[in-house]
Design brief:
Blueprint lengths: L2 H21 L2 H4 L3 E8 L4 E3 H13 L4 E13 L2 E16 L2 E18 L2 E18 L10 H5 L6 H9 L14 H14 L10
Parallel strand pairs: 1-6
Antiparallel strand pairs: 1-2, 3-4, 4-5, 5-6
């Protein structure tokens, strides 16, 4: 497949992931993955099928985690690719009785493979670069527990704070803008393009 055609197909998959997941279009959302697809997030680590199941349950219960995409850089080597896409994750919920929005800026780091002339995701690993929390009502007063906030990694500490308040178990040690985790992820991406047997070691 021509490299430009491949890059366009990969970008389309990235865009469909965000659109169909946030819309709750679960049947079409399943199409962006290969059968062995793996998803990592602050609150979930596992197969894409399990990710769809828990995401659907949360969606039906009123959980809203929304995504907005920016630019994409794609490296293609034969039938494999690594796509990095700027993104924001936005989640609304209650913290200490105050409704808040958390916005986390980062990148989606995607391991792609073309099988039977179809590009799809083998592994998705978000990189969490910076986040913030704001009251939905500007007049509301919100005081966070500094000790609890400080427990979480700096790249997603407000997101982790909110998700913990909502009852999620949040994973530490995920890739941030700098550090050992993101350096390891980059090595795994290079190995994937060079023909490694697996798409790294998911968190």
């Amino acid at each position: 497949m021509d490299e430009l055609v491949s890059k366009l197909a990969i970008r389309e998959v990235v865009e469909r992931w965000a659109l169909w997941r946030d819309a709750g279009d679960w049947d079409r959302f399943a199409e962006v993955w290969h059968p062995d697809g793996y998803m990592t997030a602050t609150w979930f680590q596992g197969s894409f099928r399990d990710f769809i199941t828990v995401s659907r349950q949360g969606f039906e219960a009123g959980v809203r985690i929304l995504h907005f995409l920016g630019g994409t850089g794609i490296d293609v080597r034969g039938d494999r690719a690594i796509a990095q896409t700027k993104m924001t994750i936005t989640q609304r919920g209650a913290v200490h009785g105050v409704e808040v929005d958390v916005v986390c800026t980062g990148r989606f780091y995607d391991f792609f493979e073309c099988r039977d002339e179809r590009w799809a995701i083998v592994r998705r690993q978000p990189i969490y670069e910076r986040d913030r929390m704001d009251s939905v009502d500007p007049a509301a007063s919100l005081a966070l527990d500094a000790a609890q906030l400080g427990r979480f990694p700096s790249g997603y500490r407000h997101l982790a704070y909110l998700q913990t308040e909502l009852g999620f178990e949040v994973k530490s040690g995920l890739p941030e803008l700098t550090g050992a985790a993101v350096e390891q992820l980059a090595r795994e991406g290079r190995d994937w393009l060079a023909g490694s047997a697996c798409a790294g070691t998911p968190a």
